[in-house]
Amino acid sequence: MTLDIDATEIIANKAEAKWTYKKNKGYMPIVGHIAETGQVVACDFREGNASPSRENLEFIQQYEKSLPEGCVVKKLRIDAAGYQKNIIQYCDEHQIDDAIRAKMSASVKAQIEVLSESDWFPLLNKQGEPISNQQTYRMPHWISDYDKAFTLVIQRKSIKGQTELGLQEQAGEEITANGFIYRAIATNQEGLSNNEITHWYNQRGEDSENRIKELKLDFGGDTLPCSDFKANNLYFLITALSYNLFALMRQLLPIELSDHRVTTIRWRVYAVAAKIVKTGRQLWIKLKSKHQSLLESVLEALRRFEPPPI
């Protein structure tokens, strides 16, 4: 299965929002998702001023321990907070295919400076057509004192109307120069093309970030109830548990509902308009036939579900 890791920022209750940001004491949960099912398997609730790169390998190991017996992590996608020697080495040692947003080092910047136009290849979309003004370049790279090379896929995208900075003036996960913005993905998947690696990594944003959005907006994880760290940690874990129950139910829903958010499911399944009618000694519920067939299919799916043994 594929592990997607992402961080998000949240605050305490709205009355304390101004104070929270002023004191730099917001919260930054790190969330690990199973890409194939959408479920949250691990959460690391942190203070907002904590480094997002802190103890990320330990978080991955915590995630693995949370998986059911027989389930293992085979793929990992993570942002630049995971661009660390220990994570890259761990993936190599445990045969985990990875895609990690790389940080731009001096050696990468120097390599970009000497590239010619013929070194760049058009980035293709999923239909195999060139994406306008976007190209990629592939190179081997090393990190820290780890002696095994990995693949670095550098992406560039042309920009207009922005101030350009020299390569030597920038740091972090992207640089801007000569009318382009440059970013890179580190990966150990040598058999995949630049296009496949890029699209597979980008799928992390479509999956993980959208699921975190659901977790925050649909299940109340965006605004925590108080300013106590442990209480908010417990609240967020309960929120994640509620989300997981819905994610499990969503897999049992008819295909036309399986991709909808909980707000849609509430209106389509729970908040169905009906009329209660009493005739003689019996009560009848009258509703539209399409609503009845939908409810019957949902109930039948729930009846067929066999939970795993505990």
Explained architecture:
Strand 7 (130-143) and strand 8 form a beta hairpin. Strands 1, 2, 3, 4, 5, 6, 7, 8, 9 and 10 form a ten-stranded mixed beta sheet that branches. A two-stranded antiparallel sheet has the order 11-12. The protein has eight helices and twelve strands. 35% of the residues lie in helices and 25% in strands. The protein has helices at 17-22, 56-66, 85-93, 106-114, 194-217, 229-252, 262-270, 289-304, and strands spanning 2-7, 30-34, 40-44, 75-78, 97-101, 121-124, 130-143, 146-158, 174-177, 180-187, 275-279, 282-286. With 310 residues, it is of the alpha+beta class. Residues 13-24 and 165-170 have low confidence and may be disordered. 24% of the residues are buried. The protein has two domains: 2-246, Transposase Inhibitor Protein From Tn5, Chain A, domain 1; 254-304, no CATH class. The longest helix has 24 residues, at 194-217.
